Amino acid sequence: MEKRRRSHHVLTWKIAFYLLIGLAASNAVFYLVMSRPLGGSYARALYILKDTRDTSLGQAAAICLALFVMFSALVFVASLLMSHRVSGPVYRFEKTAESLRGGDFSVDVRLRRLDEMSDVAEEMDKAVKAVRARLAKADALAEELGREAVRLEKAAASGPGADRAMAEALPRMSDGLREIRETVNRFRV
User: Fold this and answer.
1) What is the pTM of this model?
2) Where do the structural domains in the chain lie, given as residue ranges?
């Protein structure tokens, strides 16, 4: 849970960083274009301000529009790149879940180096490895039970004083063993 929160915070900070960089760049460009010295006297300052209002407001509007378009394009590209870093892992999780649902436990979640949700992928891989280990253990147990069933069948068939209950229990044991194997064989490990 802590890793998931950290991943969410990192993504939030990345977005905030890109927004601040864009805002700082647009302010810097606007300042450089619009800065004019006001002169040494009050009358000169009024004249420059009036001239700025009359001539530069159109330029300022055009600059603001151009900055808005450039900033919007930058945000669009950044959001597109970041969305691929999120949607790519979601797609991989879906494909991995389909494989697991189909019984293929040999899959791992493979993400690109800069993708988000790598901590979730690690946890999913750990869970799949744990299931693989349990399935391998169940398969080994089924093999052992199979050898034991063969041994008991031979002992029951060879001895004239073999217990009838043991002979009746062996087919049930074999049927149960067959069911365990069928269940285990549905998974590819």
Assistant:
1) 0.54
2) 131-189
